[in-house]
Request: fold
Amino acid sequence: AQSVAQPEDQVNVAEGNPLTVKCTYSVSGNPYLFWYVQYPNRGLQFLLKYITGDNLVKGSYGFEAEFNKSQTSFHLKKPSALVSDSALYFCAVREAYSGAGSYQLTFGKGTKLSVIP
Amino acid sequence: DSGVTQTPKHLITATGQRVTLRCSPRSGDLSVYWYQQSLDQGLQFLIQYYNGEERAKGNILERFSAQQFPDLHSELNLSSLELGDSALYFCASSVEGLARGNEQFFGPGTRLTVL
Reply:
């Protein structure tokens, strides 16, 4: 079984400061990891993913995430937060290969990011 | 805009009723996923279809069913509705590849309110 933990329900950060949204995962084999963002009354938007290769992944809107296999973590980061980054952030995981051909994602509970002007 | 469309945007109905939610995937995507998002349960995977066939089932109630049609659009049918079924229902689609980490693209969702 696969699972994702986002230990913080809410993260508050001042505009211009760096931000980190934490994610840890559990999966049987190699993981594929994803970050999505959800703005109020909108669907989820894909931000970035880790499949293989460089542990530091760069994505949309200046976000990046670092894959750490030993700590089973995939924290989302941004060097300088904007007020417009305020939203709900979801981390998701799936196994790299599923013999049954299912590629369902398991999502964390979400972390609400508030960037304070 | 993700390219995934869902209709209707809002649905208000009464307990005991049946509703159908519709999803059109991105052009070229063969796989469709349905999710339920509620405040207490978070984002829960319901069911996946690939090119017309059911591929995986998650936390889907027996009162719920889905199908994917030859034109690849999908419908989620919810019957004998209960108050607790009130939620946002999302459809997502992806290109399938055996060892490729294709991301899922989400539609805007259908907000279901059961009164």
Q: What stands out?
A: Chain A is about 0% helix and 50% strand. The mean pLDDT of chain A is 92. The longest strand of chain A covers residues 87-95.
